[in-house]
Amino acid sequence: MAMKIRLARGGSKKRPFYRIVAADSRMPRDGRFIEKLGTYNPLLPKDSEERVKLDLERVKYWVGQGAQVTDRVARFLEAAGVNEKTERSNPKKAVPGKKAQDRAEEKAAKAAEAAEAAAEAEAAPAEE
């Protein structure tokens, strides 16, 4: 059985609350799970101790049994000191979209034209 440690969403509309669960990877996200390992409440401040609660012994047990950890849960485990930090690289995330790049090019072209016009205007009276 392919096990995952992942988030299962609860809470009402626009008020998310997640359980951290060990589940069969073939089960639905909010469906059947084997064991509840903790909770995550994203509405609380980041420095709150109630934001993420984990039963670290059970998490270690399931990881030892071969359970795969999702990206978000892996970050929680890194913050708790269970896993060592991994370098993540997403170079495309910082690149602006196509429309933003087009706007930046237009703005740069207008600025260059204005600078040329200003330079010509300064040079013309100096010749007289």
From TrEMBL:
One of its GO terms (molecular function) is structural constituent of ribosome. Keywords: Ribonucleoprotein, Ribosomal protein. One of its GO terms (biological process) is translation. Residues 111-128 have a biased composition (Low complexity). One of its GO terms (cellular component) is small ribosomal subunit. It comes from the Bacteria. The keyword Protein biosynthesis does not apply. Gene3D superfamilies: 3.30.1320.10. Coiled coil: none annotated. Residues 99-110 have a biased composition (Basic and acidic residues). Residues 83-128 are annotated as: Disordered. Transmembrane segments: none annotated. Belongs to the bacterial ribosomal protein bS16 family. PANTHER family: 30S RIBOSOMAL PROTEIN S16, SMALL RIBOSOMAL SUBUNIT PROTEIN BS16M. NCBIfam families: S16. This is Small ribosomal subunit protein bS16. It comes from Cognatishimia maritima.
